[in-house]
Amino acid sequence: MQTTENRPNVKSIDCDHYINGKYVQSGSGKSFENSNPATKEVLGNVQIGGEEEVDQAVKAARKALNGEWGKMPLKKRSNILRKIGDLIKERQEELAVLETLDTGKPLWLSNSVDIDRAANNFYFFADYMTTVGNESYQQDDTAIHYAVRKPVGVVGLINPWNLPLFLMTWKLAPALAAGNTAVMKPSEVTPMTATVLAQILTDAGVPDGVVNMVHGFGETGAALSSHDDVDAIAFTGETITGSAIMKAAAPTLKKLSFELGGKNPNVIFADADLDETIETTLKSSFVNQGEVCLCGARIYVERSIYDEFLEKFVEKTKGMKVGNPFDPDTNVGALVSEEHYNKVLKYLDIAKEEGGEFLIGGNAVDADKGYFVEPTIITGLGNDSRCVREEIFGPVVTVTPFDTEEEVLEQVNDTPYGLSASVWTSDVKRAARVSSQIEAGMVWVNTWFLRDLRTPFGGMKQSGLGREGGAHSFDFYSELTNVTLKL
Question: E-strand spans in 270-311?
């Protein structure tokens, strides 16, 4: 890992693999350039790993599982996880800058979400792992049945680009807490904070080989998913890739945990606190440039307040600043890559072809400097529209009026996705009634993105497989052996 100056007080890095406690380069000598989406300038080179590097990483992880890490007392392992969180906080400024350079998101967002929550993931599971109990049953005077929890083994962690450090640690922290070893595969678009994290783990006392990292493209992830000696795969990303990983993992029947795409509804009833609703809807629509799987991209508003909502929502959106991610006043930064930028622009063209009315936005901004797109609000599209049904993953929302609960629930559930939803109403009975009928893994009432790490996180339909968080994460990253002791 080599460091080069990029600008005053900002550093970028060349990203090597991390295998058995050392930074190493690919045997093939292949690498690619990593670039800043806000400026298009080159940040450094990233190694391209293949089957050879994945195999080396898996072998190191297997050896470490059977070594010191596998025999380490629970309290010592917990202390190491806490130390990882401390070191992330100590290097917060550096990590936040690298995250912003990689992703194009505002620096304040990298600090408050990506880095803060990454540290908190380790703090949470450092505590949680010491409280986990197992089942025990007395069968009259015949026997005692009790469960013994063991790590699942070597796990592959395949990560997306939108919240790179936050989502990698959301998987890595419980995996380590349960006693596993791991091979991380960061997104090729955002490799830098994962590269630094590898060194942080070693500095915190994680033994060599416990956590390894291989950079690369889809072929690298495929090699990890199909490797015979990998016991489980945890993946966050798009649904199509999840399907490919499932096929690659099928021959060895690996455990799988998928958090996939979403096209999440935001349902606003007339009795909602409109000002509070709009303030939160601005965030759920455009935070992180709309590149959040939980964003409320489909907004449904009760007809009696539809015009008032649109007027206020558009006016608030006009005040959002698009531009330099290092400017503290910036609300919307750059999209993560040229490929994704072109995808979002293509959907804007589709919306125009479908007859959508653009109330604001719909254009690229400073296209010669970086991959910026205006926050965009579109009306006039039906539920059969591609822009309503398909995940755009950018600062683009559609707004649709509704008249009855039955009508909006039919529209909300008419989707292949089922990740999250938001419901805005002051009627508690309605909130409970509507929430229970929405086909989604998570429903927020009068809020958005409010998380308690003990609660189940995940989606239905094509939005995921399994749940993460608290006991749900521990169940995935461990195996239970039932012991029957005859009396």
Answer: 298-302
Specify the 3-state DSSP secondary structure of 95: helix
Radius of gyration for the alpha carbons in the chain, expressed in angstroms and rounded = 23
- Residue 220, both tokens: 């690298």
The number of beta carbons lying within 10 Å of the beta carbon of residue 34 is 22
Kindly report the CATH number assigned to the domain that includes residue 386. 3.40.309.10
293, 374, 387, 391: which one is catalytic? 293
d(CA 441, CA 418): 6
Pull the structure tokens for residue 170.
Answer: 């959301």
Residue 212 in any domain: the answer is yes
Domain of 152 in residue numbering reads as: 3-260+463-486
Question: pLDDT per position in the chain (487 positions), as tens?
Answer: 434 334 446 567 899 999 999 999 999 999 999 999 999 999 999 999 999 999 999 999 999 999 999 999 999 999 999 999 999 999 999 999 999 999 999 999 999 999 999 999 999 999 999 999 999 999 999 999 999 999 999 999 999 999 999 999 999 999 999 999 999 999 999 999 999 999 999 999 999 999 999 999 999 999 999 999 999 999 999 999 999 999 999 999 999 999 999 999 999 999 999 999 999 999 999 999 999 999 999 999 999 999 999 999 999 999 999 999 999 999 999 999 999 999 999 999 999 999 999 999 999 998 678 999 999 999 999 999 999 999 999 999 999 999 999 999 999 999 999 999 999 999 999 999 999 999 999 999 999 999 999 999 999 999 999 999 999 999 999 999 999 999 9
Which among 271, 199, 249 has a CA at the least distance from the CA of 3? 199
Active site residue 259: yes
Domain count, the chain: 2
Decide: 165 and 178 in contact? Cβ < 8 Å. Answer: no
Residue 45 contacts residue 75 (beta carbons within 8 Å):
no
Residue 276 and residue 158 in one domain: no
Q: Provide long-range contacts, Cβ within 8 A and 24+ apart, for 116-119.
A: 116/92, 117/166, 117/169, 117/170, 118/88, 118/165, 118/166, 118/168, 118/169, 119/85, 119/86, 119/88, 119/89, 119/92, 119/169
Name the active-site residue from 259, 291, 374, 468.
Answer: 259
To the query of whether residue 295 is one of the catalytic residues in this protein, the response is: no
